[in-house]
């Protein structure tokens, strides 16, 4: 990227990138105490002030704890019935961006217990679902109308690792498509492994092929992952060790670089959760959800080596920050504090990466997943 393009991106982030004709929507998925309740809220987000106004609430739905928007923003996908003793579901919705509402297209059985994460491949054709409790991953073909076919492949794993209370079995927590969309990296918290699969999208029932494994330090618990925008590096957040693990992405594989403590202080128990990189590739953010520290850790990224330098740790002004998101322009970060039932809004300094809390927080019960999109 040239220095002029970099300067252009910074100016966009500083002065806003939403015209008067555009609208930015915030989608909040929530736990509902394992009973039908208000599962998804849609807000209109003001990209000048950071304020949000409620537009729509989807009621009578259970534990819609993770959301994923299609790249074009026309469709929203949600897990349903997570953390229940029976198979969960995946729901597909159309998004009415003008009115800020969603409408159900269809639902499909997810093939396992406790769906925890969704992802969509670069072409927008396939959706992956990670089942945490029984350690499996399912793949769905996305129809032209945004709805889902029944899963075409379900792969279960049997494995374990060091911490017997949390790692007595495989627990698939998330998956990520490679920058070139040729591989899928599946993160197994229970086995301390990242499982790499070659993708064959032409196959009818065996899209995931030729599994290889990347072993993570025992007791780490890899949870979520993000690739750097330049496609050269990847970063894993390890829930059980509270570490961020940096990798070089080379020859279609992840090569260990270094690991970093995500928490500000040392603790006996860690519950690191989510990880994202700013759109300009300069800063990495991770959420640390107690039990004794609720913070967002901020690191600057060396775009040449992939190494991280700590910038600061910011309190989340709530309890148990399970998930967070950057606004489409990158000048805000919103954090879902599940246990304190608030979504806190921070303005982001795009030059330093630091966060500054704004007075407008969003009150919503048990928020756990955030998605944002700007529409024309």
UniProtKB/TrEMBL annotation:
Record-level Gene Ontology MF annotations: 6-phosphogluconolactonase activity
InterPro entries, per database record: Cycloisomerase_2 (IPR050282), Haem_d1_sf (IPR011048), Lactonase_7-beta_prop (IPR019405), WD40/YVTN_repeat-like_dom_sf (IPR015943)
GO biological process, alphabetically ordered: glucose metabolic process
Stored Gene3D superfamilies: YVTN repeat-like/Quinoprotein amine dehydrogenase
Superkingdom to which the source organism belongs: Bacteria
Methyltransferase recorded as keyword: no
Family: Belongs to the cycloisomerase 2 family.
Protein's name according to its UniProt entry: 6-phosphogluconolactonase
Species assigned in the record: Nonlabens arenilitoris
Classification of source organism: Bacteria, Pseudomonadati, Bacteroidota, Flavobacteriia, Flavobacteriales
């Amino acid at each position: 990227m040239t220095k002029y393009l970099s300067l252009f991106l910074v100016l966009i982030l500083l002065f806003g990138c939403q015209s008067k004709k555009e609208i930015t929507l915030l989608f909040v998925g929530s736990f509902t105490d394992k009973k039908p309740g208000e599962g998804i809220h849609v807000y209109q987000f003001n990209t000048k002030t950071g304020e949000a106004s409620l537009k729509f609430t989807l009621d009578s739905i259970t534990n819609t704890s993770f959301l994923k928007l299609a790249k074009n923003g026309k469709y929203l996908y949600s897990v349903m019935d997570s953390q229940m003793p029976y198979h969960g579901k995946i729901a597909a919705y159309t998004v009415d961006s003008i009115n800020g509402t969603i409408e159900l297209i269809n639902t499909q059985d997810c093939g396992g217990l406790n769906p925890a994460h969704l992802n969509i491949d670069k072409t927008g054709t396939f959706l992956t679902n990670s089942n945490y409790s029984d350690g499996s991953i399912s793949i769905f073909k996305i129809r032209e109308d945004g709805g889902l076919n029944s899963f075409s492949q379900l792969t279960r794993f049997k494995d374990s690792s060091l911490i017997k209370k949390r790692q007595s079995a495989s627990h698939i927590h998330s998956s990520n498509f490679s920058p070139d969309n040729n591989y899928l990296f599946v993160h197994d918290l229970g086995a301390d492994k990242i499982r790499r699969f070659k993708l064959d999208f032409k196959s009818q029932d065996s899209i995931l092929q030729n599994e290889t494994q990347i072993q993570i330090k025992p007791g780490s618990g890899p949870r979520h992952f993000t690739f750097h925008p330049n496609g050269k590096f990847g970063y894993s957040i390890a829930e059980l060790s509270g570490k961020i693990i940096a990798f070089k992405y080379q020859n279609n594989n992840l090569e260990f670089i270094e690991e970093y403590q995500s928490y500000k202080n040392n603790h006996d128990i860690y519950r690191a959760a989510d990880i994202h990189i700013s759109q300009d590739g300069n800063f990495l953010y991770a959420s640390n959800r107690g039990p004794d520290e609720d913070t967002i850790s901020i690191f600057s990224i060396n775009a040449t080596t992939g190494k991280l330098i700590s910038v600061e740790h910011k309190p989340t002004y709530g309890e148990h920050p399970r998930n967070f998101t950057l606004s489409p322009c990158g000048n805000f970060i919103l954090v879902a504090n599940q246990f304190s039932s608030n979504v806190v809004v921070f303005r982001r300094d795009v030059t330093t990466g630091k966060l500054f809390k704004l007075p407008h927080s969003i009150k919503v019960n048990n928020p756990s997943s955030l998605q944002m999109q700007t529409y024309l």
